UniProtKB/TrEMBL annotation:
Residues 27-227 form the Fumarylacetoacetase-like C-terminal domain. InterPro entries: Fumarylacetoacetase-like_C, Fumarylacetoacetase_C_sf. Belongs to the FAH family. GO terms for biological process: carboxylic acid metabolic process. This is Fumarylacetoacetate hydrolase domain-containing protein 1. Pfam families: FAA_hydrolase. Keywords: Hydrolase, Metal-binding. The keyword Hydrolase applies. The keyword Signal does not apply. It comes from Mameliella alba.
Length: 231
């Protein structure tokens, strides 16, 4: 068998302290997983069933990269997130076994074309254009569980040009990582290389060309993204 054109290069993210890399299969993102962020988005933070959306694997961006300000938006936002990486697949994973399926954790930024997302929400349409665009998933090198354990608390913070914009604690997650894994595995056969971006705290806001955005999660380091000129 031959392909009619060359297959795309495998998307991947770095491993902290190693030359190895993690092949990215899918990027799952949970919406409104911190109560204060739910409120700032005009929604009730009660524990209604969680909802998820996806970004394409090749939306990943290396730590320290400069990315263009994306097209078709005038309201380009940052969202600081903890990222969990699935290392062992499964379906219908029990919550009390869910962490056994995690390979490691890292720091990410769920970049968002907010105006396109909100327009889609108002019209009852999918969020793909607002969330799943090129370069929308900066993710720093991943730390294996063997080195960092399973973070359930600790500071998460985002700065733009050195000014703090988001600041919270991982303990404030509405849906925990084991809950997210268990719930996702009821709809999808999770596989190694699936990523879960676990939600963002309050304080989301705009980025402009020339900005430097830094996300920090206690014990996991930082993810830095520079915003270049408009695409």
């Amino acid at each position: 068998m031959t392909y009619v054109f060359p297959p795309a290069q495998q998307a991947s993210i770095a491993v902290a302290g190693s030359e190895d890399r993690i092949p990215v299969r899918r990027i799952f993102c949970i919406g409104r997983n911190y109560a204060a962020h739910a409120r700032e988005m005009g929604k009730d933070p009660d524990r209604d069933p969680p909802f998820f959306f996806l970004k394409p694997a090749d939306a990943v961006v290396e730590d320290g990269a400069t990315i263009p300000y994306p097209p078709q938006t005038e309201n380009f936002h940052y969202e600081a997130e903890l990222v969990a990486v699935i290392g062992t697949g499964g379906v219908n994973i029990p919550e009390d076994k869910a962490l056994d399926h995690v390979w490691g954790y890292g720091v990410g930024n769920d970049l968002t074309r907010r105006d396109l997302q909100l327009k889609a929400r108002e019209q009852g349409r999918p969020w793909d254009l607002g969330k799943g665009f090129d370069n929308s998933a900066p993710i720093a090198p991943i730390h294996p569980v063997s080195a960092v354990g399973h973070p359930s608390k600790g500071a998460i913070k985002l700065t733009v040009n050195g000014e703090v914009k988001q600041e919270a604690d991982l303990s404030e997650l509405i849906w925990s990582i084991p809950e997210m894994i268990s719930i996702l595995s009821q709809s999808f056969a999770l596989k190694p290389g699936d990523l879960i971006m676990t939600g963002t705290p309050a304080g989301v806001g705009p980025l402009q060309p020339g900005d430097t955005c830094v996300v920090e999660v206690e014990g996991l380091g930082t993810c830095t993204t520079h915003i270049g000129p408009r695409a």
